[in-house]
Amino acid sequence: MTLSRHDDAGLVQAYLDHVRVEKRLAERTVALYTIDLNRLRQHAQEAAVALVDVQPTHLRRWVAQMNSQGRTPRGIALILSGWRGFYTWLVRQGLIDHHPVQDVRSPKVGKPLPKALPVDEAVRLAEHQQADDDPALEARDACITELLYGCGLRIGELVGLDVAASVTARGWIDREAGEAFVLGKGAKRRSVPVGRAALAALDRWLLARSAWAGNDPALFIGDRGQRLTPQHIRVRLKRRSLMAGLATPVHPHMLRHSFASHVLQSSGDLRAVQELLGHANISTTQVYTRLDFQHLAQVYDAAHPRAQSRKPPGRSRG
Q1: Which of 131, 298, 313, 140 is nearest to 219 (CA)?
Q2: Strand spans (E) along 116-254
Q3: Is there a catalytic annotation at residue 295?
């Protein structure tokens, strides 16, 4: 079949036949390609340009339009993928000598904010008492919760804690100094302050732990005397959060996020939060400034008499 460079409809149909027959793509995929290529033709017609004459500047403008109209970065990326395949085929057919989509990128997908509990929910979780639990289990789970939220530990740092310091210990808690010594990412050691509530919970757990103690030096053990696994702690923490009546099941890293967000809200000291979390780069910690602003915006909306005049974030027209 002879293809005409300026027959846009014919080029699109020839490409769709190619992916359906020669590449044997699924009908659903071909249908999506059809929609995306018809969108491309519409853009080109509005710009009074043939498909073979489309330039990267055209495509960037059309991407910006789709973005302003509310299409998601992922959706735009899928559309560009379809367009890229079409132009790759045109190059192979010798119909164009340039690839206009090659260096065009979709908007970046924003990183989702880490999930942090409100202060009152974090405190409720920490103070919750499960009366029908085995007292030792309750003391252990309470201590785990206090250390995750009160110290901002990673779950790997928590399970690595031993009862006492030793040359082989990955981490331990100095009860007298009120400090936890942990081995973080990159085999970097750091110390973290341990608050009074966490120390009190630790004392209760150590007293209960003595009934289970075997030869394992781990601080947190099961009733058979073996060090707890991260998965075991995740299950217990989720159960505790549901029993405490929290709307969202809690996982260990959520308590680390809550720790960071709440310390930053109270102190405003980003560098201190970086040190407490053991982040190598301040950019990793800066995500919590977004959480902090989110909190401030909520306070403003609830408390300020002129808050109702604040326009919600939206998309501009035109």
Answers
A1: 140
A2: 172-174, 179-183, 189-193
A3: no
Pick the catalytic residue from 23, 105, 185, 310. 185
Distance in angstroms (rounded) separating the CA atoms of residues 5 and 83: 17
The answer to whether residue 185 is catalytic is yes
Sequential pLDDT tens for the chain (318 residues) = 566 777 889 999 999 999 999 888 888 889 999 999 999 999 999 999 999 999 999 999 999 899 888 888 888 999 999 999 999 999 999 999 889 998 888 887 666 656 888 889 999 999 999 888 899 999 999 999 999 999 999 999 999 999 999 999 999 999 999 999 998 887 889 999 999 999 999 999 999 998 887 788 999 999 888 999 999 999 999 999 999 999 889 999 999 999 988 888 778 788 888 888 888 787 777 777 765 555 545 555 665 455 554 444 443 333
Distance CA 103, CA 56 (A): 8
Asked about 154 being catalytic, the answer comes back as yes
The question of whether 108 is a catalytic residue gets the answer no
Letter string b/e over residues 72-104, b meaning 16 or more CB atoms within 10 A of that residue's CB: ebeebeebbebbbbbbebbeeeebbeeebbeeb
The model's pTM: 0.59
Q: How many whole angstroms separate alpha carbon 35 and alpha carbon 313? A: 30
Question: In this structure, what DSSP letter does residue 38 have?
Answer: H
311 is annotated as an active-site residue: no
**Where are the extended beta strands (E) located within the chain?**
172-174, 179-183, 189-193
